[in-house]
């Protein structure tokens, strides 16, 4: 079994266990609904934080790639300009 599959089964098991514990817990319906709503809000906040962190990380990667491409293009233009001036065809 792959690591990803094992992690997926573990997460599914935790989720199923949590869901069953909510339904069999000795709380009133109102308390349970509030608890579930708070957990959902916490999950949404956590997901939003992770999305924001991913966007920041992706922007850093894209910016680094753009800098590298700019450097390579500048080096290529500089190199091409030198070769063009030194070539015999350019002199004619």
Please give the structural blueprint.
Blueprint: H1 3-24, H2 29-86, H3 88-91
Structural overview:
With about 90 residues, the protein is mainly alpha-helical. It has one domain (about 5-90). It has three helices and no strands. The longest helix is centred in the middle third of the chain and has 58 residues, at about 30-85. The radius of gyration is 29 Å and the shape is elongated.
Radius of gyration computed on alpha carbons? 29 Å
Number of helices: 3
Structural class by secondary-structure content: mainly alpha
Helix content: over 70%
Number of domains: 1
The biggest sheet, with number of strands, parallel, antiparallel or mixed sense and barrel status, is: none
End-to-end separation: 70 Å
Task: Write a compact overview of the structure shown.
The protein is an all-alpha fold. The protein has helices spanning 3-24, 29-86, 88-91. The protein has one domain (3-91).
What key phrases describe this protein's structure?
92 residues, mainly alpha, 3 helices, elongated
